[in-house]
Design brief:
Layout lengths: L2 H11 L5 H6 L9 E5 L6 H17 L3 E5 L6 H9 L6 E6 L1 H4 L1 H4 L11 E16 L7 H8 L5 E5 L5 H13 L4 E5 L3 H9 L5 E5 H9 L3 E6 L25 E8 L5 H15 L2 H9 L3 E4 L2 H22 L6
Helix pairs in contact: 3-11, 8-13
């Protein structure tokens, strides 16, 4: 059998060694619909931001981007789904920053390290607001503490055990000497705010955009913000620093992530699309109108926030012995 005949036989049988690598080459990205995971149910801040950028990402990527709410366990269900997704860019994660900087400390048995997620770009940052029911006779943190201390028990809510709102309230309790607070966790901002309005607890820390509709509607009252300066949409509400809580400054931020090991080329492509979406006057206007700061920029900004906040919140959580199940 001649060499040429042998090669023709292999080609006819589809067994040529050189054919396999060509078939294995990935096609253009994206080649099918993209799933955009959200760790909370509809109605909350994470869901709002994800759905705000969804149409623009769909248009620029050339494939449908489908928001999928994976609520529960303070975002850990969505974290695990994102961590285990194929690193091909067809699964993205609109994640709350607490998922990466707080959850590993409050859920020691998480089983995955969210810091291995690949940052794509910033979506938005929001000051946290201490928002209380109008029946609570307090318009400042000093008045809140004076009212709360004599109570046998004061219930407060959060969007989930181990979330930023939970950690922030326990941190506030430690800074102000409150020892009678009891945590009532919910599965997202929507249900938490519904029960705040029903006065099933006294108040909660929430992002400005989540709290603003109820504050403007007179259904709740903001008594402090955690931003360095007052919020332009809540100019009457003093910052925590103005009220004597030095260093009580942080934001509730949201970023777009991809699964671990996602190729840099795909990350750059998604980041470019996200940057164009975030530059849209309509998107920026809607984010600014609710008191948040629009995102943008490269992965480096997200990486810097994680590097700063991961040890910061870890120290608070250890010092206050905060548990995700309490």
């Amino acid at each position: 059998m001649t060499a040429s005949f042998h090669r023709r036989a292999l080609l006819a049988a589809g067994l040529a060694p050189l054919a396999a690598p060509a078939l294995a080459q990935p096609g253009p990205y994206p080649s099918r619909p993209v799933t955009l995971l959200v760790g909370f149910p509809p109605g909350g801040q994470s869901d709002f931001i994800a759905r705000l950028v969804q149409p623009g990402l769909s248009r620029l990527l050339g494939q449908p981007v489908v928001v999928e709410n994976r609520a529960g366990a303070a975002g850990n269900i969505a974290i695990e789904a994102a961590m285990r997704a194929r690193p091909d860019g067809h699964t993205l994660f609109a994640a709350n920053g607490a998922f990466v900087t707080i959850n590993p400390h409050t859920f020691p048995n998480l089983g995955v390290d969210p810091r291995q997620l690949v940052p794509v770009g910033m979506l938005a940052q929001s000051p946290m607001v201490l928002n209380v029911h109008t029946a609570v006779p307090a318009r400042s943190i000093a008045e809140f503490v004076a009212w709360a201390k004599p109570q046998p028990e004061v219930l407060y809510g959060s969007v989930g055990a181990g979330t930023l709102g939970h950690v922030a309230m326990e941190y506030l309790a430690a800074r102000t000497g409150l020892t009678n607070l009891t945590h009532v966790p919910y599965r997202g901002g929507g249900p938490a705010n519904q029960d705040l309005l029903a006065h099933r607890f006294a108040g909660l820390f929430d992002g400005a955009s989540g709290a603003l509709p109820f504050i403007r509607g007179g259904q709740s009252r903001a008594i402090l913000v955690t931003s360095p300066q007052r919020s332009p949409v809540l100019p009457e509400v003093p910052t925590a620093v103005e009220q004597g809580l030095e260093g009580f400054t942080f934001t509730n931020w949201f970023a777009l992530f991809a699964p671990p090991a996602t190729p840099p080329a795909i990350v750059r492509q998604v980041n470019a699309a996200l940057g164009e979406v975030m530059a849209s006057p309509e998107v920026r206007g809607r984010i600014l109108a609710q008191g948040d700061t629009p995102g943008g920029g490269g992965p480096e900004g997200v990486e810097a926030l994680i590097a700063r906040e991961y040890p910061q919140w870890g120290s608070v959580i250890r010092d206050q012995k905060i548990r995700a199940d309490g």
